[in-house]
Amino acid sequence: MNVKTLGQFIIEKQADFPYAKGELSRLLRDLGIASKIVNREVNKAGLAEILGETGDINVQGEKVKKLDVFANDQFIAALKAGGEVCAIASEENEDIIPVDSEISKNAKYVVAIDPLDGSSNIDVNVSVGTIFSIYRRVTLSGPGTMEDFMQRGTEQIAAGYVIYGSSCMMVYTTGKGVNGFTLDPSIGEFCLSHPNMTTKKSANTYSVNEGNYLHFPDGVKKYIKYCQEEDKATGRPYSSRYIGSGVADIHRNLITGGIYIYPVTTKSPNGKLRLLYECNPLALIVEQAGGKATDGKVRILEKDIKELHQRTPLFLGSHDMVEKVMEFMAKYAEESIQK
Ligand code: P6P
Fold first, then answer.
1. Which domains does the chain have, with CATH numbers?
2. pTM (whole model) above 0.85
3. Which residues have CB under 6 Å of ligand 1?
4. Is there a contact between 145 and 98 (Cβ–Cβ < 8 Å)?
């Protein structure tokens, strides 16, 4: 079987970017290296003394798991060592991490990252993931600033995720389609396994934490009931699949078709997921695969971003399924306004 490694693929596709002189290629390589190191630790998390909690609380007010900290350190170290970024934003860090070193003085990019999404699943051996987003810097020189991150999702140069599951996969886009690479541990390389990934226009899987049902907007409640109705013509009732690890749910739905919903709830009045380093990169990937991603009203990639850890509701996945729930959101939002 002719194996094409991530490195070979990146170089082959470099021709897509005449202005790039390899910086983006090296940046993607740096992310790949850190992913392999994180995967190695995730795979033996049960053995190593890195399970459990550090006792710290991160900027999201969530208990920090040791593997969170390890993953964050690995990605920051790899990005700093690669010299291609002038700043990093991470879910684990309250403020941006400016990069001001000799090797990064001509850096053109900034990276926003959720180093280990779904980390509450680490101790129960459920798949977790890394999500990353790459922008070209807008400031002219020196270490990057907050301004470099306050860009709409449409401005992303590249976006991707890594899923640490039954196999380790990297899925990314540079705006010209989506490609998936599976780590072959025997050679320590990500190999092209899912070329030109596309998602189904419609399917019959919906992913939402129905424990929050009582606090959902009426449109979401009505859509969930729609998914549960018997209707052979539209393949309903749909299947409910919710792992509690967004990368795992969204990766499955990308491959089999489906919709992932995290709406506003009383606990998360602006939604739970973060726009910069979760929703924007996932939205770019899903749109590039033919899907759709909105906050229930507005396209995710066109939302203005004002804060580093800004949250947003997320409706993402198969195009027609996202459109359907938006119809319910519009219909029942009007009804509640007219009440
Ligand atoms: P809940 C993980 O913390 C995450 O950000 C997503 O990966 C996941 O889908 C969601 O939150 C789970 O949240 O409130 O359903 O436990």
1. 6-194 (3.30.540.10), 205-338 (3.40.190.80)
2. yes
3. 117-118, 209, 244-246, 249, 272-273
4. yes
